[in-house]
Amino acid sequence: MPANDSPTIDFNPRGILRNAHAQVILATSGLRKAFLKRTHKSYLSTAQWLELDAGNGVTLAGELNTAPATASSSHPAHKNTLVIVLHGWEGSSQSAYATSAGSTLFDNGFDTFRLNFRDHGDTYHLNRGIFNSSLIDEVVGAVKAIQQQTDYENYCLMGFSLGGNFALRVAVREQHLAKPLAGVLAVCPVLDPAHTMMALNRGAFFYGRYFAHKWKRSLTAKLAAFPDYKYGKDLKSIHTLDELNNYFIPRYTGFNSVSEYFKSYTLTGQKLAFLNCPSYILAAGDDPIIPASDFQKIAKPANLHITVTEQGSHCAYLENLHKPSAADKYAVKLFGAC
Fold first, then answer.
1. How far is CA 274 from CA 157, 264, 266, 299, in A?
2. pLDDT digits (tens, 9 = 90+) for 78-88
3. Which single residue of 57, 163, 173, 202 has CA 20 to 30 Å from 84?
4. Contact 247, 257 (CB under 8 A)
C-alpha cells in the first residue's frame, strides 16, 4: 500500500474513555488483561516459544502463532503474511496491548510473532548485558532470524511506544534484513526520548512512578540472573527515573551521559529520511507521554504517513474493555492492504 493511501481510523470513545489517563489505566488494567486471557486463551496457550540468534552472541526470544495448514480461513491472502509485534519499554510479548493486537491480527488471518527485547518477558538470563534502547542491531538481527526460519511472502512490523521507535529504526535498516518489509506500523512511537522523559517527569505523578517501579523490578530480576553485578545495594536508594538514568546509563550502556544516550535513539531531524518501505505512524494528540509537537520535527519521506487522532492516549485506543482497540483494527486494515 502506498503511504498516501493510509486507511482511516474509526475511533469514538465515550464517557470515561474520553479521558487520556483513564484510557492508559484501563488499557493495562487487570480487567483488560483478564478479558484477553479468557477470550484469547487458545491464541495465548498455543504460541510457540522461539529463541533466536540475534547475532554477536545475543539471544532474543518471542512467541510465534501460526494457523494450522489445514485450517480454513476467510482471509486466505493474509496467510502469506507474518506480523512481528514489538512491545514497549518494560512491556513484553504478554503485555495487554501486544496480546490484543496479536490475537486480533491472528483472528483476521495473519500469523504473528511477538518479540521480546533483551531483559523483557522473563528473558533476563539469556544475555549478560543489561538492556538499553540503543541496542537496535540485535533487534534487526532477531527480525532477520525469524525471516530466515520462516517462509512468508510478506513480513510486517507493528510496534508500540519504544517498540514503535524500534520498528521505525529497523525499517531504516531494512537492507540488513533477509527480506524486505511489506509495511511498518508504529503506534505512539517514542521520537525524542529527552522530551518523553520530561513529559514523564512533569505529567501526572503516577507515570514516572510506574516506570521507575517496573525498571527497578527488571534490574532486580537481572541481578538474580547475574549476581556478580554489584548494583543491588545502590538500587535500594534510587527511586526516580532521573536517578535511575543518571546511575545506570554511564555505568552500563557505554554512553558517557544521559543526553548522549538519548540521542542514540532519537528519531527527530533526518533520522527517518531514508525510509524505503511503506511506514505508518498512528499517534494521539492527547498522549500524556509522547509530546505531539515531536511529530513536527521528523523527516517525512514519501513512504512515511502520519495519522494523529484527537484522542487515543498512549497506545490505548480503547472503546470497550472487551473489544479490540481501534489501533488493532487499524492494523488489520493496514496490513491487509500490503
1. 17, 17, 15, 9
2. 679 999 999 99
3. 57
4. no
Residues 220-266: tens digit of each pLDDT: 999 999 999 999 999 999 999 999 999 999 999 999 999 999 999 99
3-class SS letters over 121-157: CCCHHHCCCCCCCCCHHHHHHHHHHHHHHCCCCEEEE
Query: Residue type for 225, please?
Result: A
Q: Supply the DSSP symbol for 158.
A: E
Rg (CA), the chain: 19
Instruction: Starting at the earlier edge strand, list the strands of the sheet with 279-284.
Output: 48-55, 58-65, 111-115, 81-86, 154-160, 183-187, 279-284, 304-309
CB atoms < 10 A from the CB of 35, how many? 17
Which amino acid, one-letter code, is at 42? S
The pTM score is 0.96
Measured torsion, CA atoms of residues 327, 35, 24, 9, in degrees rounded to the nearest 10: 20
Please give the single-letter amino acid code of residue 76. P
Letter string b/e over residues 287-323, b meaning 16 or more CB atoms within 10 A of that residue's CB: bbbbbeebbeebeeeebbbbeebebbbbbbbbbeeee
Secondary structure letter of residue 5 according to DSSP: G
Taking Cα atoms as reference points, which of 306, 67, 267, 284 lies closest to residue 184? 306
CA distances from 234 to 72, 107, 139, 216, 243 (A): 56, 46, 30, 11, 11
DSSP reduced 3-state for 276: coil
Q: What pLDDT digit, counting tens, does each position of 191-215 carry?
A: 999 999 999 988 878 899 999 999 9
Instruction: Note whether 88 and 162 are within 8 A (CB).
Output: yes
pLDDT surpasses 70 at 146: yes
Other C-beta atoms within 10 Å of 90: how many?
Answer: 20
